[in-house]
# Entry
Amino acid sequence: MPRPLVAGNWKMNGLNRDLTEARAVADAHPAPNCDIVICPPATLISRMSATLEGTSIGVGGQDCHHAGSGAHTGDVSAEMLRDAGADHVILGHSERRSAHGETDDDVRGKVEAARAAGLTAIVCVGETGAEREAGRTIEVVARQLAESLPDGCDGLDTVVAYEPVWAIGSGGAASEADIAEVHAVLRGALTERYGADAEGVRLLYGGSVKPENAAGIFAIEHVDGALVGGASLSASGFGAIISAAG
Ligand code: 13P
# Structure
């Protein structure tokens, strides 16, 4: 089993003063038993990198453009994230897919750009509540996985996060049985497509992961860590999840 990864997605939260939370996580976990990444808004990446310099905590963006540079007002390229100090980037988050109309093709182009810039892509898949009720969960996540990932992925450049849309921000995570079912399918699909190269690709669960449910989620087969939203904003909450991972 790969070393677990606990990633915090700060979404559109975080000002200069909140860097102290990240620093507190680093100070409380000088030698963690898992990899840790914090993904602040783009405005904080450079300062977050400086804050966490010398620690084992990585820094990630939350999106990037597929192009390297050019006339794309308001966008940020993978190389810019890397230049600001990021080593990871979340791509295809459901909030990007729904609010910005990102398609699997768009996400795949961004993953290729991230890889070219030397970033590890955390690629999100997950069904909506309506898709789950219609019995389409496996079909949807399998399609998103197949079409959002380019050829040639491995554990160094790719992480996959299963985030059921209906569980995000709801306070209630998916059941352990539902997580186990989807993660087994994702693991099987990765192995079929990438063979031995897929072994190191970590499968994170995301959607209302909290200190209270983290240990149970980490114990599920084929769960290699978590992508944490709300609970990653405080050092105490994120730290408790990190402790549960290792
Ligand atoms: P919450 O942990 O707040 O449910 O968010 C999950 C998420 O979307 C992480 O990317």
Observations:
- Residues 5-245 form a domain with the TIM Barrel fold (CATH 3.20.20.70).
- The mean pLDDT is 97.
- The longest helix spans residues 176-194.
